[in-house]
Specification:
7 helices, mainly alpha, 2 domains
Length: 150
């Protein structure tokens, strides 16, 4: 099976060396190695940089698509910036409801309230994370006590 050809490396050898001295990145080093010796295999470069050969292939695809800036940019992980677990109006309503003294007895009750009020089925874990980490609240539920013991 023939190997995919290397994308043309547009930066000069001197440019790459200067950038590598300024910022030590494996991705820059990879380009420098391929520019110095175009006959090198991806496996050899991967072994030299102590990364997997598929990582080298992924870096080369990014370089071919967007150049040096795309190669050196760091991908953002997680959901897209505008994406939320619940819509903004629901979030605000939960905040208001949690500020009230009666509040909720537990996360299940809050989950049920979201479903009844807004028709949204939100997983328990999402409700917990939203309340606990985003809103900074803790829904306290006392431990069950036997009636004879009380």
């Amino acid at each position: 099976m023939p190997r995919a050809p290397l994308p043309p490396i547009t930066e000069t050898l001197e440019e790459l060396r200067q950038r590598l001295q300024a910022e030590r990145k494996c991705r820059l080093h990879m380009l420098l190695l391929f520019k110095e010796d175009p006959t090198r295999t991806r496996e050899a470069v991967a072994q030299h940089l102590a990364v997997h050969r598929n990582t080298i292939g992924r870096w080369l695809r990014r370089y071919a698509r967007g150049g040096l800036e795309a190669l050196l940019s760091i991908e953002r992980r997680g959901p897209k910036p505008g994406q939320r677990t619940v819509p903004r109006p629901v979030y605000v309503a939960i905040q208001k409801r949690l500020r009230q003294p009666e509040g909720f007895a537990g996360y299940k009750q809050l989950q049920q309230w979201i479903y009844e009020a807004f028709g949204l089925e939100v997983p328990y874990k999402s409700v917990y994370n939203l309340v606990r980490y985003h809103l900074g609240a803790k829904l306290k539920v006392p431990r069950p006590v036997h009636p004879k013991k009380a």
